[in-house]
Amino acid sequence: QVQLVESGGGLVQAGGSLRLSCAASGRIINYRMGWFRQAPGKERDFVATIGWSGSSTGYEDSVKGRFTISRDNAKRTVYLQMNSLKYEDTAVYFCAADVDRYSLSTRSESFELWGQGTQVTVSS
Fold first, then answer.
1. pLDDT tens-digit readout, 65-76
2. Parallel, antiparallel or unpaired: strands 57-59 and 32-38
3. Which of 16, 72, 76, 109 is spaced 20 to 30 Å from 95 by Cα?
4. Residue 122: CB partners within 8 Å, gap ≥ 6?
């Protein structure tokens, strides 16, 4: 089973940028990939998703125009470029994989594999 490991989180000032990476232990070309986030005391929320080829993407409304999801299947890695970060982006960010590579569902239940998460803290 493919394992996912996130990295790239940290502390950044509001208006700054971070790039998260999700490295997979195996091939990811058969998976649709996504990023979710969970703030303290809140549910895990959808952030972005990308189809197996990278040609289709979807974003949660509050991150549109600021975040960009991408993937490099050869490197088995998915990225989340986060620009113009806001205090409310503070959360643990999770990478996830869905075996239905054609889906664009934003429901966390649609994803079968999850990483352990990486903390993103935005100071105001």
1. 999 999 999 999
2. unpaired
3. 16
4. 11, 12, 13, 14, 16, 85, 86, 87, 88, 89, 90
